[in-house]
Amino acid sequence: MQNENIEIVVIEDEEDILELVEYHLGKEGYSVTGFLSTENVERFLDEENPSLIITDRNLPGMEGCKFITHLRESGYDIPVIFLTAKDKDSDLEEGFAAGGDDYIYKPFSPRELILRVNALLKRSGILQTQERIKYKHLSMDLVKKVLTVDGETVTLTNLEFKLLYTFMKHIDQALTRDFLRDEVWGADGSEVNDNAVNVAINRLKNKIDPNNEQNYFHPVWGVGYNFH
User: Fold this and answer.
1) CB-CB contact of 189 with 162 (8 Å)
2) DSSP string, 102-157
3) Which residues of the chain have pLDDT under 70?
4) In the prediction, which pLDDT does 129 show?
């Protein structure tokens, strides 16, 4: 599950709570951007493509509910979780009426927060999309362990699938052979020499790009390989 591809915006004016939420979401693998007020959030939404907003209601400047109402009226349909001390039934109703998708009371359990985040992202179809990773002509189904190239299924060994997945997670980064041994071969990596790594990469290349039309793999002298 590639949670690092899922960006979450957290709006919370208490720095210790903001840091706590950022820490637990980061530990879960999510990419997190925090704001101490609603200022600059809309500009961020225009430039980036976050998957979820977690917001307090008691915020400096624009109150959280009003801000979400404004976002909804502006056409943003990004899922929203209110994380707030406002715990009356009327506050709850106001939060959902403003366009909130879930409502968590403070003080909160970090585990509950993570479970609710995961559940909301699944309901909105965002986590499911992370079960597939695509690049150029390649599409990997991470659940079924199936690779398609231009829509055609290409049979890979388990090792080749792990090798390609490792490269697909690190597009345009020079990966050392030692890193590949650890990621792909794991405990058996110490018995795999450089030549065996090169052979595995060549076999993979011949399966996914037999005519070298995409030129995915680039040797990096003295380092290893770059995939782009």
Assistant:
1) no
2) EEEESS--HHHHHHHHHHHHHHTTHHHHTTEEEETTEEEETTTTEEEETTEEE---
3) 1-4, 127-131
4) 59
d(CA 141, CA 73): 36
Identify the pLDDT of residue 101. Answer: 93
- Enter the DSSP assignment of 174: E
Beta strands of 36-119 (E only): which ranges? Answer: 52-55, 80-84, 102-105
Query: What pLDDT shows up at residue 3?
Result: 62
Joined together, the tokens standing for residue 222 give 């003295």
Look at residue 1 in the predicted model and tell me its pLDDT.
43
pLDDT value of residue 201: 94
Helix (H) or strand (E) holding 217: strand 217-220
Distance of CA 201 to the CA centre of its chain: 26
pLDDT at 180: 92
* Count of C-beta atoms within a 10 Å radius of residue 198: 14
Task: Tell which residue, 63, 128, 48, has the closest CA to residue 100.
Answer: 63
Nearest to 113 by CA among 2, 32, 13: 32
What span, in angstroms and rounded, lies between the C-alpha atoms of 7 and 49?
7
Centroid of chain to Cα 199: 31
The pLDDT value given to residue 87: 84
